[in-house]
């Protein structure tokens, strides 16, 4: 069981660590909200989405769904358009500390964006299926359950930690200058991911 736990923990941590749209959004909300509690909707939603993806990957359900090439094309297309829109929204948001109050997302909007950036990111979905799903095959019974719990636990701990880190930056950055820079950098990262997804979309269309 210990081997299964360590395997799942290290694997999930390695997958979730790279800076991507999901991580950027959770961190940003932690920084923009007036306190950590108000950022909990994005943390919980992102973690629940990861829990669903990991569970489906380990059960093998998601492999069946994405075996249809036309469905992959739809996922890539929606993901590309959404990330372009999200990048633009972050790029133009919170130009000053005073205006950050008006730009803070409600709980409902946080959840909507978190669901979208978690489930409309084809690379995250395919990584979960290809890596976590395939690595879980070597386990059965209790070991497989422990492996699953370890992978899911990493997501919950990571997203909460990101929100905490963002909240610390939000309190330290009294002028809002660092948030402006962070937003620009975040938007550029999201657009970069969108470009890669756009490339995959073109490839899938001309297969």
TrEMBL record:
Name of the protein in question: L-lysine exporter family protein LysE/ArgO
One GO CC annotation: plasma membrane
InterPro entries, per database record: LeuE-type
Keyword Secreted among record annotations: no
Ranges that cross the membrane: 6-27, 39-68, 74-91, 112-133, 145-165, 185-206
Pfam families hit by this protein: LysE
Membrane topology note: Multi-pass membrane protein
Transmembrane listed as a keyword: yes
GO molecular function, one term: amino acid transmembrane transporter activity
Entry keywords, A to Z: Cell membrane, Membrane, Transmembrane, Transmembrane helix
Recorded superkingdom: Bacteria
Species in which this protein is naturally found: Heyndrickxia coagulans DSM 1 = ATCC 7050
Compartments, as annotated in UniProt: Cell membrane
């Amino acid at each position: 069981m210990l081997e299964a736990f360590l395997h799942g923990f290290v694997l999930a941590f390695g997958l979730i660590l790279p800076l991507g749209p999901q991580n950027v959004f959770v961190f940003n909300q932690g920084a923009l909200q007036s306190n950590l509690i108000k950022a909990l909707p994005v943390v919980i939603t992102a973690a629940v989405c990861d829990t669903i993806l990991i569970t489906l990957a380990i059960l093998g359900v998601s492999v069946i769904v994405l075996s249809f090439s036309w469905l992959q094309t739809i996922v890539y297309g929606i993901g590309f358009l959404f990330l372009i829109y999200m990048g633009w929204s972050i790029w133009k948001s919170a130009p000053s500390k005073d205006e950050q109050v008006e730009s803070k997302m409600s709980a409902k909007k946080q959840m909507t964006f978190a669901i979208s950036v978690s489930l409309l990111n084809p690379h995250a979905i395919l990584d979960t299926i290809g890596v976590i799903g395939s690595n879980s095959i070597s386990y059965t019974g209790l070991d497989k359950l422990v492996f699953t719990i370890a992978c899911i636990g990493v997501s919950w701990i990571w997203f909460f930690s990101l929100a905490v880190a963002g909240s610390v930056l939000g309190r330290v950055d009294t002028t809002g200058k660092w948030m402006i820079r962070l937003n620009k950098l975040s938007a550029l990262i999201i657009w970069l991911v969108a470009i890669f997804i756009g490339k995959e979309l073109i490839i899938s269309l001309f297969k």
